[in-house]
């Protein structure tokens, strides 16, 4: 960490440093004072009489003394860097002595919507010196006008500020009663937000333990205790009113939250009042003490304690040391003691006393008041420093202190005030610059646009403080575009906001939970799905009424490795239509393939058009591969339900997914393909096998792993196949051996058996599909539908006001706008919420960070249900195989393909976990198919060719 160095200044630098906006340079002032000379006052001994410096020497002395208050730009940069390092260490949870700032997470996770409503009681303690404020704040939501809060200020007696804690909280409870007596309110339901401006460890929105008193407070028995509880106890002891303390916040948080939202939200709160501090919205994952990797959280920097490890050494003056020694908390809050309003008057007093003692002011005389602690207050400094206030006011203040004021004294005193104030503003700017750099870094933005809410009496009463701060911030972080917005009604409105936000978030969470509850399936529900599936499988195999068709595929064996030859394959029905050349050699399988598009008008046009298009693609592929004229055996992956009567015969039962070409259902697809080949006379093709994609996938994985006896697809659609005992298959003759069964599980539940699990969102998606009432299971699981389910939930949550501030947009009402691939992207941990925001902003949806979290939760609920239902299906299949074989334990592999399964970050894990849970006696390995089911179709063809050759022999 860089240390802060002492530096000599050039006169230009000094000019710049001491100059708040628009004031003539101090050095020039000094020169003019020197030229005019100081007038001697009547009754005051002259310098020469007292052996004191001459007037011009006085101004030299003042200047020399004020040199100590100058902080160069390099030093400011060093403070900025050092504080930033300290902040990052504290965020990272490193208990290093150098990390003197505390970085305390608050329980505020979102900035206000502007929709907050309701009446709130606010109690402010600790922000403004010895006064305590009670407010009644009415928030009107977006529609209403702003209502001025009612407020009352109470002065806390010094003995209460330093006495037992119980006395302080009893005093606060008494003030609340007095306020409510004076302003009776109609409601019984009093919700209070407590602004408590001291460093606290917060463990909940209404739980906060005081770490240590700062500023002028030192009550016994409070440090280490929950201040909310202490207040609640005191209110109870008081007994007059029933007040619920809903939230506790630091004043910086109140300041940030109370800010009228401008173009963007206000994400930094800066207070310079009795003390100084800032808070800002940090990414939760960067805050080590929080076990949270999502969203943002407001962190109170507690920068007042920066420098307690002596990092500030070189910029501390003798006056700072003297002030610290005499304070209630020596050695602590060293940075705050150079900036906070509680200390500025005291610093000025110490400088003036020193200068008077050196003879540079007041004719070398001090007064008892000037020598007493606390005699110069912030308000005196503010008035004396104000360029618009006349010299007469300065005179009056100094005279009140019992000082005899010479003509030049007023001017010189004003310089002292300016020097002390300017330094405070510049140091504060360096600290703010550290916060802005931190924000820029954590948000990875090159140009940070940010609004900073400012609060506290120093800002309110001393406008030049803000202008110096602003100028300095621009110098230190030129890459940040900062707008400063004064907070409304002090922090009081913000505290009410936090209380309202807490109430709103709780209400929204309830609505979100209610909406997503039907998607969260428990073990019993999943086990019931598994049982129903097993029952439907058995019925389907027996030819009884069942939503599972259990179609025989005429694939009786997985490859044995002896297959050889060159094959063509087609792969139709997934995301891509592909034509492949598959070479099966002793050394393995080589594949050359090309993807062709099937325009929607073709997929949903006439059957003839579709099959002509397919043949055109094959011809093109043959030409490109130099295969024209050759009649290679062809395997056709056709990913739709077909009743097969042999390997090369498949009657399309019905289209699924996005296909709907006319005159195909009820037809043999191989015939349709052959007819299309016939229409293109130049082509010769030998169609050997038609294969479902599940079967292709199982065969393809089976080539590598003989235990692979199940094929699973979770892509555009979903389905599974597995090796069944032939004796169980009623529609195929023979009792020995196996046959692969295409379950067509997408249609599971079409008989209404999934009724209880289906939500209104599933019903919406079904109604809008091209095949309403069909493919119930598929519509809850596969890629073609999940995005749509999410979109319908988002529409519902928007209508409840939980999302997008209740504003419906045209975009979100557009079908298929929310792609299933977004679920995979949104749920990918590494991209986190940034991704959610980018996607939704791309869709033109207005978004807050709460919205992003909600969208993420919706996606998670929908994809989790899909994966669990799929897992329940796989559990049914593997259990069936185990039972068929009468095994105690079954070891089996499942070949899987499909974009959703492969691209989604958690889908495969959830499927596997569900299978483990529901089928504990099966050890299931999932193998991802790398080459698509085209390779499997070629292998089925190869097996068929091998068997045909054997028949010939
Ligand atoms: C591919 C197969 O690998 O997976 C296709 O070759 C299949 O035939 C597909 O339909 C399923 O995935 P998707 O996501 O493309 O529907
Ligand atoms: C002190 C307190 C801090 C507060 C600040 C401004 O630094 O420790 O919590 O925010 O003063 O009032
Ligand atoms: C649909 C089809 C089915 C296919 C699945 C996966 O459910 O009907 O045959 O296997 O999608 O592509």
UniProtKB/TrEMBL annotation:
<feature type="region of interest" description="Disordered">
    <location>
        <begin position="1"/>
        <end position="22"/>
    </location>
</feature>
<keyword id="KW-0418">Kinase</keyword>
<keyword id="KW-0021">Allosteric enzyme</keyword>
<protein>
    <recommendedName>
        <fullName>hexokinase</fullName>
        <ecNumber>2.7.1.1</ecNumber>
    </recommendedName>
</protein>
<dbReference type="GO" id="GO:0005741">
    <property type="term" value="C:mitochondrial outer membrane"/>
</dbReference>
<feature type="domain" description="Hexokinase N-terminal">
    <location>
        <begin position="64"/>
        <end position="259"/>
    </location>
</feature>
<keyword id="KW-0067">ATP-binding</keyword>
<dbReference type="Pfam" id="PF00349">
    <property type="entry name" value="Hexokinase_1"/>
</dbReference>
<dbReference type="Pfam" id="PF03727">
    <property type="entry name" value="Hexokinase_2"/>
</dbReference>
<dbReference type="InterPro" id="IPR022672">
    <property type="entry name" value="Hexokinase_N"/>
</dbReference>
<dbReference type="GO" id="GO:0006006">
    <property type="term" value="P:glucose metabolic process"/>
</dbReference>
<comment type="pathway">
    <text>Carbohydrate degradation; glycolysis; D-glyceraldehyde 3-phosphate and glycerone phosphate from D-glucose: step 1/4.</text>
</comment>
<dbReference type="InterPro" id="IPR022673">
    <property type="entry name" value="Hexokinase_C"/>
</dbReference>
<dbReference type="GO" id="GO:0004340">
    <property type="term" value="F:glucokinase activity"/>
</dbReference>
<dbReference type="GO" id="GO:0005524">
    <property type="term" value="F:ATP binding"/>
</dbReference>
<dbReference type="GO" id="GO:0001678">
    <property type="term" value="P:intracellular glucose homeostasis"/>
</dbReference>
<comment type="pathway">
    <text>Carbohydrate metabolism; hexose metabolism.</text>
</comment>
<dbReference type="InterPro" id="IPR001312">
    <property type="entry name" value="Hexokinase"/>
</dbReference>
<dbReference type="GO" id="GO:0005829">
    <property type="term" value="C:cytosol"/>
</dbReference>
<dbReference type="GO" id="GO:0008865">
    <property type="term" value="F:fructokinase activity"/>
</dbReference>
<dbReference type="GO" id="GO:0019158">
    <property type="term" value="F:mannokinase activity"/>
</dbReference>
<feature type="domain" description="Hexokinase C-terminal">
    <location>
        <begin position="268"/>
        <end position="501"/>
    </location>
</feature>
<dbReference type="GO" id="GO:0005536">
    <property type="term" value="F:D-glucose binding"/>
</dbReference>
<dbReference type="GO" id="GO:0006096">
    <property type="term" value="P:glycolytic process"/>
</dbReference>
<feature type="domain" description="Hexokinase N-terminal">
    <location>
        <begin position="512"/>
        <end position="703"/>
    </location>
</feature>
<feature type="domain" description="Hexokinase C-terminal">
    <location>
        <begin position="710"/>
        <end position="943"/>
    </location>
</feature>
<dbReference type="InterPro" id="IPR019807">
    <property type="entry name" value="Hexokinase_BS"/>
</dbReference>
<keyword id="KW-0808">Transferase</keyword>
<keyword id="KW-0324">Glycolysis</keyword>
<keyword id="KW-0547">Nucleotide-binding</keyword>
<dbReference type="InterPro" id="IPR043129">
    <property type="entry name" value="ATPase_NBD"/>
</dbReference>
<comment type="similarity">
    <text>Belongs to the hexokinase family.</text>
</comment>
